[in-house]
Specification:
The termini are far apart. Strands 9, 12, 13, 14, 15, 16, 17, 18, 19 and 20 form a 10-stranded antiparallel beta sheet that branches. Strands 3-2-6-7 form a 4-stranded antiparallel beta sheet, with no helix packed on it. The chain has a 3-stranded antiparallel beta sheet with strand order 1-5-4, with no helix packed on it. The chain has 2 domains: about 90 residues, Peptidoglycan hydrolase domains (Immunoglobulin-like, Sandwich); about 170 residues, Glucose Permease (Domain IIA). It is globular, with a radius of gyration of 20 Å. The chain is mainly beta. Helices cover about 15% and strands about 40% of the residues.
Amino acid sequence: MIRTSLITLAFFAFLGSVQAITLPESAPVPGGVAVIKLDVDEKPVKAYFEKHRVMVLQQGQDWYAIVGLPLSLKPGKYTLSYTTRQQQQRHDFSVVDKEYATQRLTLKNKRMVNPTPKDLVRIGKESKIIHRALATWRATPDVNLNFEMPVEGIISSPYGLRRIFNGEPRNPHSGLDIAAAVGTPIHAPSGGVVLATGDYFFNGNTILLDHGQGLVTMYCHMSKIEVKPGQHVAQGQVIGLVGRTGRVTGPHLHWGVSLNNTMVEPHLFLHQP
């Protein structure tokens, strides 16, 4: 009788842990995240959007696909494909438009706007490292999506800004800039594994952190890196210090969130009380 009761308690404890998974805010817009409930009775084997594998998580008795939507995506109808042991299925969903503001910045270092040929060679090598890290897929049964803010500071540049440097248009802002004093501790917003670290031309001292199932976060412009590739870090652990390395106008952390190899709005993963 005691053993049966313990088994029952263990079952409900497990069920409670499944139900406790926090999903990100659903925002089916360019640069947003689509949270799609799947019409299945069992865990899908794989799910894909635009040829990229997509995160699938269970909440309670239901399964959800967590889909990162590119900032360049046009409004319209799109299809998520997924498979179970029995068959392949499709789920159609709509992406609606969103307007992002424009930001004009002046940089004293002209090379940060128009790099030299030698700079371009370096940038090309570093881009391959970063893109390879962002494309990482590590199979994990659960992913903690209840992120904490990585650093205390002021939001100086939101995600999605159409940026103009020294009068010349450049790629939209793919992350969140948080202004803080040099040396301010940067914390891991969720547990993960360090994929890569480096001192890059545009990004300065940088960390790429893998949280599982195609969710990778990036931390740039740091004054100091406190972790090494392959290291496991816990939520809240200090991974580096705020700095002003790379292409900056002042000390801050550039925080990027990549989901299924797509840079998305970091605020969607922050669940403030």
